Amino acid sequence: MFQVFKKLDWFFKHYWKRYVFAIVALIIASAIGLLPPKLVGFAIDKIQFETLTLKLLTMMVAGYLLLIFIHYAISFLWDYTLFSGAAILERWTRSRLMDHFLAMTPTFFGKYRTGDLMARATNDLRSIQLTAGFGVLTLVDSSLFMLMIVAMMGFTISWKLTLAALIPLPIMAAVMNKYGAAIHARFMKAQAAFGEMNNDVLESIRGVRVIRAFVQEKQDEKRFHDMTEDVYQKNIEVVKIDALFEPTMKILVGLSYTIGIGYGALLVFQNGITLGDLVTFNVYLGMLIWPMFAVGELINILQRGNASLDRVNETLDYEADVKNCENPKTVKTVDTITFQDVVFSYPETATEQLSHINLQVKRGETIGIVGKTGAGKTTLFRLMLRQYPGLVGCIKMSDVDLEEISLEQIRAWIGYVPQDQIMFSKTIRENIQFGKSDATDEEIYRVMDLAHFLDDIKQLPNGLDTQVGESGVTLSGGQKQRVALARAFIKDPEILILDDSLSAVDGKTEAKIIEHLRQERQNKTTFIAAHRLSAVTHADQIVVLEDGKIVEEGTHEELMSRGGWYKEQYLLQQLEDEEAIS
């Protein structure tokens, strides 16, 4: 049960001063809280024996008020120190998770679904924060504070009465332990179900257009209802155990009260204790209710926290499958890019996505990559970005193996526009500034002109300040592609990769963008993957991929003269364009 504290020892060691201060202050506040019942018992005895004077009563009331003020001040200090420390843990862990997500490759995101990761970064972190804050409080109260109360009852009143009143405690310990194990197992299932529901909601929101287009609203609503019902039932299973804590504690506390009052009254009659002692003892028994409840709360909180911490640590312990080497080499400029007998298969697949790829690219060249769907174009680019491990052969930049260059440097060189454009829920200006954070409006307008987006921006209600919505929902497919192009252009990268990034624009717009590219990208390397071959006719080299192999290679003129797949496809597309015009 206490393993969660051991797992968090890295945090407690770092902030040990904060936690030592909070715990010491909590103990002092608890000790001060034990004095008022003694004053009450003392006053009752003075009244009983008719020895209470006005001066003594005034001193007792003044002392009581002073204790209240001191207790309040110290309680504020421990409360603020302890729970702010828990907030720091949540912030720190959330930052670690975010850094971890940013360092992960597609393999990780293929294993963990987005909704489940969101659940771990929200619900599970709250449970961990509760453990580091309220969990520490209940630990101190259920152990030290309870011992302090028992010691006051035993040493200052009667050990016989104290031991008799505490007979229900062993029963409580056994029952609470059983409840704790049940909560841990059920809470893990509830959190997993919550993660699945989160993921389903995200998919429904992202795919709402498709859901409406195929009239699947009712089916999606039913699926969501079934998932929420599953989450509800699993949480009810947790609540059922949770609900047993309080009545169980009340029964045991009631037994303690019964023993305390019954046996205590007998001791008063036998002159073993005074009436004031009996009143004080029962006040202490009342004070003992919270520490006894705290035992149940402690088990509940620690089991939830332990389950959540296991889920978060499982995520954080996932090792990135692509890392920097120990001593990365520094490469100033990318003069050449060389693929030497590159063979690659995605993790957990036996099929080769790329087979014996050999390619030499010089600085300033434009390379066209074409082929059927699934030929390996995107895979080739992913290897250049070092998104996957398991590469056989090597890719070199300026005669240095890609694996010997730091990931940061590689990605600083490359401007990448993928097939599926990612738009952030920000303004168009902010989306473009991802390529260059300090870009001015003048620079932004310039790259929008290159991406042939100026006419569109004039039609948008707020110009550059137009919010694009969730995943760019307010923009058309072609507009999203051109904003993504502008974002890559403003970076002015050494290597620009366009992965079928012109598929949603018309032929005329494509031709203008390509012409702008030819003017702007002189002396810089550009890779263009496209299904529309007109996008690569100007390329210095065109590579035709089929089933992961290079089957044709050369300039547009050379490939047309060979009469292979490239010529056949190009002529077919030209014919389709002519028919569309006519």
From TrEMBL:
Matching SMART domains: AAA
Keyword Protein transport: no
Domain (ABC transporter): residue spans on this chain: 337-572
Parts of the chain that traverse the membrane: 20-44, 64-89, 130-155, 161-179, 251-269, 281-302
InterPro entries, per database record: AAA+_ATPase (IPR003593), ABC1_TM_dom (IPR011527), ABC1_TM_sf (IPR036640), ABC_transporter-like_ATP-bd (IPR003439), ABC_transporter-like_CS (IPR017871), P-loop_NTPase (IPR027417), Type_1_exporter (IPR039421)
Main subcellular localisation: membrane
PROSITE patterns assigned: ABC_TM1F, ABC_TRANSPORTER_1, ABC_TRANSPORTER_2
GO cellular component: plasma membrane
Keywords tagged on the record: ATP-binding, Cell membrane, Membrane, Nucleotide-binding, Transmembrane, Transmembrane helix, Transport
Annotated SUPFAM superfamilies: ABC transporter transmembrane region (SSF90123), P-loop containing nucleoside triphosphate hydrolases (SSF52540)
Subcellular location: Cell membrane
Domain ABC transmembrane type-1: 20-304
MF GO annotations: ABC-type oligopeptide transporter activity; ATP binding; ATP hydrolysis activity
Protein name: Multidrug ABC transporter permease/ATP-binding protein
Species this chain originates from: Lentibacillus populi
